[in-house]
Amino acid sequence: MGNMETLQQSNFKNGAYPFYEKLRKDRPIFPMNSDGKNHSWMITKYEHVKELLKSPSFIKDQSKLFASSSQDAEQNEFNIFQNMMLDVDPPDHSRLRKLVQPYFNPKTIKQLEPRIREIADDLLNQMKQKETTVDLIDDYAFPLPIIVISEMLGVPAEDRDKFRKWSNTIVSASNEMDPDFMGDVEAFTTYLTELFERRKYEPQDDLVSHLIQTEEDGEQLTRNELYSMIVLLIIAGHETTVNLIGNTLYALFEHPDQLEKVKADPTLISGAIEEGLRYYSPVDFSTARWADENIDFHGQSIRRGDFIVASLSSANRDEEKFEHASQFDVTRERNAHVAFGFGIHFCLGAPLARLEGKIALEKLLTTFPDIDLNRDVTQPEWRSVFLLRGLDSLPVSL
Ligand code: HEM
C-alpha cells in the first residue's frame, strides 16, 4: 500500500493522531508521492508548518512553475475555481483580498451578532418542537453558518440544500472528470449567472451586489474572479464552521468534566472554541504550497515544483508547542493554534467563524443545560472527506 493510501485511510478517524505523532517524531518531512522528478511531501511539526506558510519561497499558483501551452489554453477557459484568492499569490492575492476584507473584519462582523443570535434562537425553537432524536449537525451546526453567509452574500437561504449538495460534491470530489462533479459545477455556475443578472439590475445591500458593482467598474475584479470569489465564500461558509461547532461539541461530550466547567462558567466558551479548533481542527489537508525554488528545508532537500501539504491537525497537537497536546482543556492559555492557517492566506472568515461558534455554544448550553450525546444511537462517524475533519451526524438527547 502506498504512503498516500495509508494516510487517506487513517486521516478519516481518530487514528490519524497517533499516526501524526509518529511522523512528527520519525519523519516530520514525509515523502508521500513522487513522479520521478518532483515529490509531494507532508509536514507535521508546528514550527515547520508556520515556516512553510509564511515563506515567500512556497507559493500557491502552480501554473507559474509548469507553464505549458495547454495550461495557457486552460487559463483562458472559464473555470469557477481558477481565480480564487485562496489559490493565487501576490499581487493578485492582495488585490482580491482587499476587496472583501472590510466585510469580514472583526468590527463589521460584530454588527452581525444580534442577527446570529436570532438565527440560533430560531433553530433551537425548531429543535424543541422535535419529538425524535435531534441531530446537532443537521438541525443546528449546519444551518446556522449557512443562513449567515447566505444573508451576507445575498443568496436566498431557501436554496441552501442545493448549495449543500454542490459544495459537498466539490470538496469530496476525488476526480474532476466525475460526471456528478461536472454536472454539479455546471448547475452551480448557471445558478450564479442568473443571480448575478438579477443583482446587476436590482442591486441590494449585499456582498454579491457590491462585488458585481466592482466588476462592472472594471480594473479591480474580472468576471471569472467574481465567480471564484462567490464560490469560495459559499464553500468556506458551508464546509468549515459546521465542523467547528460539531467538533467542539463532540469534544465537550467526550470530556464531561470540561463540559461541566463551561456550563458553570460561560466566560470559558471562547476558550472552548479555541480548544475545539486546536483539538479537532476542521481543516486539515487542504493547506498546501508549491516550492518556487530549490531549498533546504530542515535538512530535507526540496526541489522547485515540489508540493508540500501542511497538516494543521498535526501541528496543533505538537507536544513541542502545546503542553499536554493530546488533552482537551478549555482553560488552556496561550493557545496559538494554526487551525485558521498563518501568513497572508490566514483565514478571512476567522472572526465570523469564532463569533458563530461562540454564539452557537452559548445558546445551546443555556437552552438545553442537560444536553448530552444520545449514546443509544450509533457512535458519531467522521465524514470521509480527506481535506476536512467533521462529523456526519451528532445525535443528542436534550
Ligand atoms: C482561508 C480555515 C471559516 C473564508 C483559510 C485557511 C484556513 C481556513 C486553514 C488558509 C488556507 C491556506 O493557507 O492554504 C477555516 C476554518 C474555519 C473557516 C477552520 C471555520 C472554523 C471560514 C469562513 C469563511 C472563510 C466562515 C468565509 C465565509 C476563507 C477565505 C480564505 C480562507 C476566503 C482564503 C484567504 C486567503 O487566501 O487570503 N480558512 N476557515 N473561512 N478562509 Fe477560512
From TrEMBL:
Keywords: Heme, Iron, Metal-binding, Monooxygenase, Oxidoreductase. This is Cytochrome P450. The keyword RNA-binding does not apply. InterPro entries: Cyt_P450, Cyt_P450_B, Cyt_P450_CS, Cyt_P450_sf. It holds the Pfam family p450. Transmembrane segments: none annotated. Belongs to the cytochrome P450 family. GO terms for molecular function: heme binding; iron ion binding; monooxygenase activity; oxidoreductase activity, acting on paired donors, with incorporation or reduction of molecular oxygen.
